[in-house]
Amino acid sequence: xxxSGGNVTIDGGxxxxxxxxxxxxxxxxxxxxxxxxxxxxxxxSPTLTGNWSWDDDKGLLFGTGGGGPKVYAAPVGGNFHxxxxxxxxxxxxxxxxxxxxxxxxxxxxxxxGVFSGSWSFSKDVADxxxxxxxxxxxxxxxxxxxxxALSADYNDGWLRINNTSEFANGTFSPNHIRxxxxxxxDADRGITDPTGSYGTVQTVGxxxxxxxxxxxxxxxxxxxxxxxxxxxxxxxxxxxxxxxRNGATVLYHNGLEKLESVPGGVNITGAVVATSxxxxxxxxxxxxxxxxxxxxxxxxxxxxxxxxxSFMIQGRKQYGFIAQEVRKxxxxxxxxxxxxxxxxxxxxxxxxxxxxxxxxxxxxxG
Length: 366
Known about the structure:
Layout: E1 2-4, E2 7-10, E3 14-16, E4 20-23, E5 26-31, E6 40-42, E7 52-55, E8 59-63, E9 70-76, E10 79-86, E11 93-96, E12 102-107, E13 118-121, E14 129-132, E15 141-145, E16 149-153, E17 158-161, E18 171-172, E19 183-184, E20 190-192, E21 202-204, E22 212-216, E23 220-224, E24 228-233, E25 238-244, E26 249-253, E27 256-262, E28 265-268, E29 309-313, E30 316-320, H1 323-326, E31 334-336, E32 342-344, H2 349-365
Antiparallel strand pairs: 1-2, 2-3, 3-4, 4-5, 5-6, 7-8, 8-9, 9-10, 11-12, 12-13, 14-15, 15-16, 16-17, 17-18, 19-20, 20-21, 22-23, 23-24, 24-25, 25-26, 26-27, 27-28, 29-30, 31-32
C-alpha cells in the first residue's frame, strides 16, 4: 500500500481519493450526495458476504437471505436517505439499548402489518410522535403533540386531551363525547343511561353525605336518598322543597316550613295572599283558648264608626269597607303587605256586631 498526494493505493489496483474509489483506473464508487452529506455511492454492485447483500433498487441490505427480515436505506430522489425495515409476516420488531432493555416494540399480532398491531414505548421518546393515515393528515389518525395534547381525528370531529389552546387540563371535543356504559368522575360516581321510565341521564355511585343527585356549581342540589328527595340550598344549608316517598311534601321559605301536604289537604304556616277569588266549602278559624293570650270581655262596639260602601274590584261589584277608613279607629283589623297594599280582617267585625246586638237588646228590655 502506498500514499501519494492525499490518495491511497492498495495492492491490487484499488485507489481511494477524497471523493471516489477506482480499481485499475476505472471508477467504482463516487461521493454519494449532492447536498454534501457523508457517504459514497457505488457504480457496480459489490460482492458482499455474510448477512450483508446488495440490491440495485434498495442499496445495501443487512438481514437473512431469501424472504427474511432486512434493513436498508431507501432511495429518495436518487439518494439513500430513509432507513427501511422489511419484516417477515407475523414477526415483531424490538429495539433494545446496550443493557438489553426493550425501548421500542412493534407488535404485529401475527399479521405483519404496521397499523394492524400496536406500539409499546418502554422509555422516553421524542416530543412529537404522529400516527396519521396519510401525509396530508386529512383522514383519521392519532397525534401526540409536544407532550401537551393527544389528538384523535374521527372525521366527525377532534378529541383533544389537555389541549393547551382550549384549556389547561381535561378533555375537549367540539362535538360529542360518548360512552357505552358509565361516565365516571372518580372511582365509582358518574352518570349513565336512565334505568327508570323517564329522564335523560342517571347518576350512579354513592353520593356525598349519603345523598345522590345533581349539584349545580355548589349552590343548589337536586338530590335524593332511599326515603326522601328534593331541592336543597347548598349555600345556606337549608331545604327549599323536601318530599317524602309516599308521604308529605314540604315547602320552605328562608329555612322555615311554610306548607306541608297531609292526607286531608295542606297545612300552611303564615299568611295566604290571593289576588283573586278564593272558593271553599267552609272556612274554619283557629279559636282554641290555649292559643290565645290576654282574653278580656268586649266592652264597646265600633259598629257605629263603620261606613259601608259599594265598589268595583276586578270588574265585579262588591260591598264592604275601606281599609284606610277602618284603620283610623280599629288599626288592629288592617294589614299591609310587602307591596304596601292594605287588607282587612272582616271576621273580627262579627264580635262587634254581636256586642252591638246585645247592647240594643238590653236597651229594648230596659
